[in-house]
Design a protein that fits this description.
Elements lengths: L1 H22 L19 H64 L1
Helix pairs in contact: 1-2
Length: 107
């Protein structure tokens, strides 16, 4: 019976994790800066473009950090699911071995 409970718990955890993943909203889009204004552009235009590029870069860093954090969490959950599955398989194998020993003893 512990194997069935473990497998049921694993199935519930996997379902909840996939539902959470499906409901997650993607991070907001970062507006890509305009192309470089060129070497003949005024200093004011160049400074404006540099500010625009810096805003875009900071936005991208935030998005990348958010995606990385989510990926790290998913990896942790996947590893936990694998560990639970391995434990269930080990429990199952132990029970099968016990039943085989009982059958051999009865013969």
């Amino acid at each position: 019976m512990p194997v069935i409970r473990t497998l049921a718990a694993f199935a519930v955890a996997a379902t909840m994790a996939s539902a959470a993943w499906a409901q997650a909203t993607p991070p907001e889009k970062c507006e890509k800066p305009d192309p470089h204004p060129g070497r003949l552009a005024s200093n004011e235009k160049l400074r404006g473009w540099t500010r625009e590029v810096n805003r875009w870069q900071e936005c991208m860093k935030v998005q990348i950090a958010a995606v990385q954090a989510k990926a790290d969490q998913e990896v942790k959950e996947a590893n936990a699911a694998v560990a639970a599955s391995n434990a269930a398989i080990n429990d199952y194998n132990a029970i099968v071995k016990e039943f085989q020993a009982q059958v051999e003893a009865a013969q």
